[in-house]
Design brief:
The protein is α/β, with parallel strands linked by helices and 302 residues long. The protein has a single domain, classed as Alpha-Beta Barrel (TIM Barrel). Helices cover 43% and strands 13% of the residues. The chain is built from 11 helices and 11 strands. The chain has helices at 21-34, 49-53, 62-72, 90-103, 118-123, 131-147, 181-190, 201-207, 215-231, 257-270, 284-297; strands spanning 2-6, 38-40, 77-78, 83-84, 110-113, 151-154, 159-163, 174-177, 193-195, 240-244, 274-276. Helix 10 links the parallel strand 10 and strand 11. Helix 1 (21-34) crosses helix 3 (62-72) and helix 7 (181-190) packs across helix 9 (215-231). The longest helix is centred in the middle third of the chain and has 17 residues, at 131-147. It is globular. The relative contact order is 0.14.
């Protein structure tokens, strides 16, 4: 089992310490020292004020933030959580991902999804109802321009003829996020990982996704994924699966390491390969302390 977390910029208004270089560097280096395998950043370039004040959170640009992490760490995988592919022209995403992968010595993982904020789609000039078509176009462009010279593609909003973009990555894993059967079919056909979205019923309605509250919900979804992989002629080890124990993190008063270790065993038995945990956003000190404690009491013993 590999371990990762999403950078705890989780409130609005944001804590200024978490948008400082010193704060980001401290958290990233503490995570690597504690044994974590990856770090993620969310993607919200233009969220609405209504969403922010109703429980949303501010965000750094994931590609820029991960470039800082790449410069100050040696081992952490760089995993945006998640890049909303339809927000951007796919050639722009391909160039940013290939650049970051090259400058991090192959540590970048492109974790993607379609997103759910209509207001953000409107602000970026992208039709929300076209998101699935745009997502599939982007997957085709990413794989094509990373592997071919003189790559051509006729998209719904762009035309590319004889494009050559360098450097070409040796292999950037593509994780695909979401809880729908369509997502798992995409993973089987095009992906290197599945990154489902843990969501209670209320959150699922807000995020326009299928509820996913724990391992009981995850198990039948994984069975569907294994079926799709078999149909595609692929094996289970071809695809990573990222999930969470769903238990209180090391910054909480009710943190129970033994329960985390038990849950990790259950997740591994189902086929989960990456586990995420929550990190407090109260302060940089609290975040670092939680990472260190989780590393010592869970990662080192798992």
């Amino acid at each position: 089992m590999k371990h990762w977390f999403t950078y705890p910029l989780i409130t609005h208004p944001y804590n200024p310490a978490f948008v400082s270089r010193d704060g980001l560097v401290r958290v990233a280096q503490a995570a690597e020292a504690a044994g974590f395998d990856g770090i993620g950043f969310t993607d919200h370039p233009a969220p609405s004020h209504k969403w922010l004040t109703a429980g949303g959170h501010d965000a750094l640009d994931p590609f820029v933030a991960l470039s800082i992490v790449a410069a100050v760490t040696d081992r952490l995988r760089l995993i945006p959580n998640i890049v909303v592919l339809p927000y951007r022209n796919p050639f722009i995403v391909a160039k940013a991902a290939a650049t970051l992968d090259a400058l991090s010595d192959g540590r970048f993982v492109l974790s993607t999804a379609t997103g759910y904020l209509r207001s953000e789609y409107r602000a970026l000039g992208v039709e929300f109802d076209d998101r699935n078509e745009l997502f599939d176009e982007a997957l085709a462009v990413l794989r094509g321009v990373w592997s071919q010279d003189e790559f051509g593609y006729e998209g719904s909003t762009f035309t590319a003829g004889s494009v050559s973009a360098n450097p070409k990555p040796k292999h950037v894993p593509i994780w695909i996020g979401g809880n729908s059967p369509l997502t798992r079919r995409r993973v089987a056909a095009h992906g290197d990982g599945w990154n489902p979205f843990p969501a209670s019923g209320g959150l699922a309605r807000t995020a326009r996704t299928i509820p996913l509250e724990g391992l009981d919900d995850l198990a039948p979804m994984l069975e569907h994924l294994w079926e799709q992989l078999e149909r595609a002629g692929r094996a289970r080890p071809d695809v990573d699966v990222a999930f969470t124990t769903g238990l209180s993190g090391a910054g909480s008063a009710d943190f129970a390491p033994d329960r985390h270790l038990e849950a990790l065993d259950q997740m591994a038995a189902l086929g989960v390969t990456w586990s995420s945990t929550g990190v407090p956003g109260d302060s940089i000190d609290a975040a670092v302390e939680a990472l260190e404690r989780y590393g010592a009491e869970v990662i080192a013993k798992s």
